[in-house]
Amino acid sequence: MKTYKYLILGAGPSGLALAHTLKELGEESFLVIEKEAVAGGLCRSDVVDGAPLDIGGGHFLDVKRKEVLDMVFKFLPRSEWQEYKRISKIRIRGIEIDYPLEANLWQFPVADQVDFLESIAQAGCVRGIPTPESFEEWITWKLGERIAQEYMLPYNKKIWSTDLNRIGIYWLYKLPDVSFRETLQSCLEGKPFGTLPAHGVFLYPKEYGYGEVWKRMGDSLGEQLITNTEISSIDIVNRVVNGCFKAETIFTTIPWTIWPSISNLPDEIKEEITRLEFSSIDVDYHTEDIQTDAHWIYEPDEHLSFHRLLCRNNFTRGRGYWTETNSRRALEKKGWRYRNKYAYPLNTREKPDAVARILQWAGQNKIIGVGRWGTWEHMNSDIAVSMGIETGKKLWKGEVL
Q1: Residue boundaries of the structural domains of the chain
Q2: Beta pairing class for 81-85 and 278-286
Q3: pTM of the predicted model, to two decimals?
Q4: E-only strand ranges, 232-363
Q5: Stretch 130-150: mean pLDDT
Q6: Which homologous superfamily does the CATH classification assign to the domain defined by 2-87+204-397?
Q7: Cα(151)–Cα(299) distance, rounded to whole angstroms?
């Protein structure tokens, strides 16, 4: 039996950031346990057809969080990153329009612009109609009938592959209000208006895939990271993992849906965990190049299985592109494919209450959820790193987590 002050389950961005924050603050009594051979979680990369490919889908480093950049640059220096101004497109009405759609309607022919503008003018949020509670009604209320029916609703049906009315609206605050005035001005002046989306400017390694920085962060932990080690048992009462690692506190970045089969959870917490859902994503590599300047393209057409494609040759070396497809929609394919079983947490209506009860119980047992799967929140890698850093600092200060 080996005893540590802290055990960290999972070496994705949040687990690695937490481990390095503890290390920088002088804490040495911790161990990170990782199922895969290499650290990085959903942000791992591989070499496919002679060039880097991110096996968890498209991941990019946002430049907005200084504490995140300060940490990752210690392992992959700024000189090894290339900065890009985001070019993302939406395929709609037979052409590619810059993202976000509502800020770039001016790129359509005039008749199509009028079509969308008329729809936005009639949107519920523009007309002061009370906020609806169902996902489908909310999207139409927020964006207008045209954008909802031609882009947002089919795209969300593809990425989640579930009845959209099972999805809550509590997370949709991320969608900005569509201003009829700004949209009209954009169409008249022929340029975008409004707030830039996340990753408006992003960084990507010059010579590697995105997984390189997380691999280096894992390697630098030395014996404080063990890989190729699946979590097979967790004794909650004694906080013993796999029968041989004991801790005062456990930090989990692994999916809660794994816990019922490997731990002695109380029945009421098992019941809450059954309310948590997730989607799986297949990443498929295609050898041909696409004639576009986009870094990635959103595809709402429900006749096509994939919902997004990443144009590798436009942000890293190598040819070809890869697609992301909900595994329920995936077609048989020859060639390279990687299936991410745990890709996105589903924001079902039941999720917030279930997660709150799980995390409250866990905290009482000195088990702390961190990152995408520990908190069951869809977050970009920079948010996950920020959470890991913040958790480590709070822990060091003795603050309540």
Answers
A1: 2-87+204-397, 101-180
A2: unpaired
A3: 0.95
A4: 234-235, 240-241, 245-252, 278-286, 296-298, 308-310, 321-326, 337-345
A5: 94
A6: FAD/NAD(P)-binding domain (3.50.50.60)
A7: 8
